[in-house]
Write a structure and sequence with these properties.
This protein has about 80 residues and is mainly beta. It has one helix at about 35-45, and strands at about 10-15, 25-30, 50-60, 65-70. The protein is about 10% helix and about 35% strand. The chain is elongated, with a radius of gyration of 18 Å.
């Protein structure tokens, strides 16, 4: 059975092909669900779309890896001083 990534997750692996200082230290992919992307695009203001990213250091197959997740950015709930409670 082939590896099937979890939705909205990815990994950054050491770049074994790095030859110059301007090459990335780590490389990888993130697999984002279309519905999450659609929601983020609908909520975006302007030409940029903000995606929240979180990461965890792990070791997989003897290599240090950064495991990541993507989600909607946190929005602080609106609280009005005019409410009676």
């Amino acid at each position: 059975m082939a590896f099937e990534p979890k939705p909205n997750t990815g990994s950054l692996w050491p770049n074994e092909y790095k030859k110059q200082d301007n090459h990335p230290d780590v490389r990888g992919d993130v697999n984002i669900e279309k519905t999450l992307l659609e929601n983020l695009i609908l909520k975006s203001k302007g030409s940029l779309v903000k995606i929240a990213i979180a990461g965890w250091s792990k070791e997989i197959k003897g290599k240090k890896v950064l495991s990541i997740t993507a989600s909607e950015p946190y929005e602080k709930p609106f609280v009005s001083d005019d409410l009676p409670y």
